[in-house]
């Protein structure tokens, strides 16, 4: 029997017509996936009116010289909980290595380190996450709705949120303008 294909370290891209408006043009960095379920952090949309400085202010952390970048909508689960995807050159108490591709931190120590100029070289911040229970993601992957591409630092850290979806498909040689929500019958 073949071992299950886990998506950790991959990027899930929502196909047109996914059927859930929360995931239209979603770009999800898969950070955990095993027999018990999966967790991914969305990077395809930002939280309107919320910048990184606002997040730092909420923890009374001085901004230092850090840029006031947008905060991403990580997903509909625990939408007030913060997630920092970052390069593997920094590690805190809770930092999780994601398939040797990037790291994930969820405590305030990473925010303090970034603000002080002592944090990871590359990073992005999201609020909330996308979560799947046991077998749920596998079920969704067996139907049209998601397309996966390899985890890519340029896609995670260099692209702006509203370009990630199209760039993700382009990295697989697909022009997303040619994708349709449904298929015909023969």
Automatic annotation (TrEMBL):
Pfam families, alphabetized: DUF179
The organism's place on the tree of life at top rank: Bacteria
InterPro entries in UniProt: AlgH-like
Protein name: UPF0301 protein SAMN05192583_0260
Entry GO CC: cytosol
Species whose genome carries this gene: Sphingomonas gellani
UniProt-listed HAMAP family: UPF0301
Membership in a protein family: Belongs to the UPF0301 (AlgH) family.
